[in-house]
Automatic annotation (TrEMBL):
Domain DUF569: start-end pairs: 1-114
Residue stretches of biased makeup (Polar residues): 28-41
Name under which the protein is recorded: DUF569 domain-containing protein
Listed SUPFAM superfamilies: Actin-crosslinking proteins
Chain intervals for the UniProt region annotation (Disordered): 19-41
Organism the protein comes from: Brassica carinata (Ethiopian mustard)
Source organism, top-level taxon: Eukaryota
Length: 115
């Protein structure tokens, strides 16, 4: 969390120089080369009573959420979506983990956000 203590919003760029973007449908999350759009900006919210965990809110007021839905048929990766949970939900919580000069986001279940 110390990485984002003073951050109000972030843009997340992957190893392919694409930005994680909230789609206009308010549900889908995509990768986009244009990181200057409002869709590529995620508001950082600390999780109460946790120093290490954050939530990331899209420009549509929904949270970056780790789903259980497979990203590709036969693959092991899971989709991330935008969701507005009705109550406390650990699927919208992410732990920033430093790996060298990069920061990865890990779910409460030990899975990482991947490109």
């Amino acid at each position: 969390m110390e990485f984002f203590q003073k951050a109000k919003a972030i843009r997340m760029r992957n190893s392919h120089n694409k930005y994680l973007s909230a789609d206009d449908d308010g549900e889908t999350v995509t990768q986009n080369r244009n990181g200057s759009t409002k869709n590529a900006q995620w508001t950082v919210e600390p999780v109460p009573d946790s120093y290490t965990v954050i939530r990331l809110k899209s420009c549509y007021g929904k949270y970056l959420t780790a789903s259980n839905e497979r990203f590709l048929l036969g693959g092991t990766g899971k989709k991330v979506v935008q969701l507005k949970p009705s109550g406390p939900d650990s699927s919208v919580e992410w732990e920033p983990v430093r790996e060298g000069s990069k920061i990865k986001l890990k779910t409460r279940y030990g899975n990482y956000l991947k490109d």
